[in-house]
Structure formats: C-alpha cells, structure tokens
Amino acid sequence: MLTARYATLAELAADVDSQLGRGGLLVRGAVPAGLEQFGALELEVCCGAASVVVAARVLQIFPGVGVAVSIDATGRARIGALAAAPARAPAASPDPPAEDASKGVAASMLEKIQRALKGDREARFAVLRDPNRAIHPHVLRNPGLMLEEIAAIARMTSVSVDMLKQIASRREWGHRPEIAIALVRNPTVPVPTAIELLPHVSAADLAMLAKDTRTREPVQRAARKRLLK
For the whole model, what pTM was predicted? Predict the structure, then answer.
C-alpha cells in the first residue's frame, strides 16, 4: 500500500484542485520498494484522523520525490469528498509558500503523463517531442492511438528506445510488415530486436535489407541468411 499524508485539509484540497482533475496524484515522499511502472496498488490518503483507501496505478516513479499514480473516477470522488468535508479552512496568507523545485517538476511530469494517456493526436505527438523520453511510452496506453501513428512512431529516432522495444514486442504491431520494416530500418532500435523482427518483414523488404549498404551489418547478414533458407 502507498500512503499519501496531508497535515491539513488545505494541503489536500490544493492537490485535489491542481492534480486530481487530471486523473491522479503525485504522492510525495520516499518511494517504497517493489513498486513497478503501471503496476496496480492501493493508495491510502490520510488527513489528520480521516483517511480513504482507493485503487490506483503507478504512472511514474521519481526517485527522491515520490510516485505519480492514476486514480479512477470512483477513487477521485472519494478523495474529493475527504478534502471537501469539513469545509476548507481559509489560507493563513495570501501568498502561497514557494514550491520545492523538484516537486514542481514532478507535478509537471504528472500533467504530461496524463496528456500522453488521454490526449488527442496532437497532444500525443507533443508528448513524443518532449526531450524527457521517460514519458514517451505512456502514449502507447492511449485508447485513441491509431495504427498509422504506431507506424510513424516506429520510424522516429527521437523517441525512447524502451518505447520502440514495446512496439516491437506487441504482436498486433511488431508482426505487421509495415511496422516491422520501419523498426528494422530505425537505427535507434537495438540490433537484436531488429533481427527478431526480420521474420515479419515482407520478402521485397528483406531483399532490400540484404543488399542496401545503409543497413546495419549484423541486420544485413541476418537478412541474407533468411533469403538463403
């Protein structure tokens, strides 16, 4: 179980206002051992003596900062109710305290992850242009992602290697000839992964790989061996 502790309702309400509407929370503090990205868990949100336990899923782990989690609509409603009752206390000062820089970065990352998971095509490709490649693979979990987008991503050299490997490992993507050849030609894809995709490349593209001097040498040798079978 992961626990998010708040000293006051005002602190909890601030996170509800700034984060929960985007689908999740940044749980600040030490990162418990054994957490895995996209893994399911129980999240306990505590404020004083009151608490709720909701289902959540790990979106991103930020060592030294905390864990970004997604929360379903039911869980968000329960956390919102905890923050709303009793009524929020007025702020002691009109000037909010300065936010720690690392926490601000992590909160920004949570927003980008939510954009990757739920955004439209334009938002998805905006995420893929982000220099922080750790957020790129989240796009693959967006329900609106189209096959043509996967083919376009497979040709990109600017996205994370982990994302390209995930595309290669998914049968519905990596076994499609147009996606397989895009990945094989992509110099960012590790050579072993590219060679594993050769059985799914069309015969014409296999012949091209075998003779094209721009093909990476180990991949070219493997292509020639397949042609001789």
Answer: 0.63
